[in-house]
Amino acid sequence: MPEGEGTIQIPEAMGQFLTEHGFTVDEKGMADAFKAFGNYKTDITKLKGEAKGKSALEQELEQLRTAEEQRRQATLTETEKVKEEKAKLEKALLEKDQLILKGQKDMLLKETMFDALKDKPLTSVRKQLYQAAASSQEWDGAEALMSIFTKVDTDLETEFKALKVTIPAPGDEAGAGGGTGGGATKYDDAYFERLQKKSVGLPQ
To answer: Which in 20, 129, 131, 186 has the greatest CB count within 10 A?
Structure first.
C-alpha cells in the first residue's frame, strides 16, 4: 500500500484542537476525542436530569414538612394552642418593650448630656468623652449618668492642671491660652483620643 494511503488527513485547526485537549494528532486521537466528547454530552444530560430530580425532591420534602405541621396543629389540644399563642405574644411584647426602653434610655442620655455640657468649655470633646464613658458602664437614671459625667470632668480638669493649661469659659475672648507656667496651648486629636480611652479604662 503506498505511503499515506488509507490515512485521514487532519486539518491544521483540528490538529491544534486535539493537541490542546491532550489527544494525539492521528486517527486514534480523533476517535478518542469523539468518544470523550460524546461521554461529556451524556454526562451533561445526566447532570441536568439529576438537578431536576433534586428540585423535585426538595419540593416534595417541603410539602411533607407542611403536611406534618398541619397534622401537628390538628392534634394540638385547645390548651396547647392557647399556650403557643401566648408564648408568641409574650415574645413580641418583650421585643417591643426592649425597643421602647432603648429609645427612652437614648433620650435620657441626650437630655442629661445637654444639661452636663451647659457653660462648659470644649463641649465637643466632653461630649465624646461622656458618650464613651456612658457606653462602657451600667447606669440607670439621670443621677447615675450625671455622676459618670462629673467623673469625666474631674479627670479632664486634672489633666489640664497637670499640664498647666487654663481653658477659658465659653465666650471668653482671651482664647485658650496657657498659664504663666508656659504650658501647652494647643491639643491635637491624639491627645483627646488618649483622654477618651482613659475615660473608659482602655490602654493608652
So the answer is: 129
- C-beta atoms surrounding 39 within 10 Å: 10
Is pLDDT larger for residue 51 or for residue 96?
96
Set of cell numbers at residue 95 = 421585643
Alpha helices (H) along the chain: 12-20, 27-75, 78-117, 123-135, 142-162, 189-199
What pLDDT score was predicted for residue 193? 59
Strand, coil or helix: 178: strand
- Give the chain's length: 204
> Which residue in 136, 130, 116, 129 sits closest to 195, CA to CA?
129
* Contact (Cβ atoms closer than 8 angstroms) between residue 19 and residue 25: yes
Q: Reply yes or no on whether the pLDDT at 24 is more than 60.
A: yes
Highest-confidence segment of 15-19, 23-27, 157-161: 157-161
In this prediction, residue 15 carries a pLDDT of: 76
What is the distance between the alpha carbons of residues 204 and 200, in angstroms, rounded to a whole number?
11
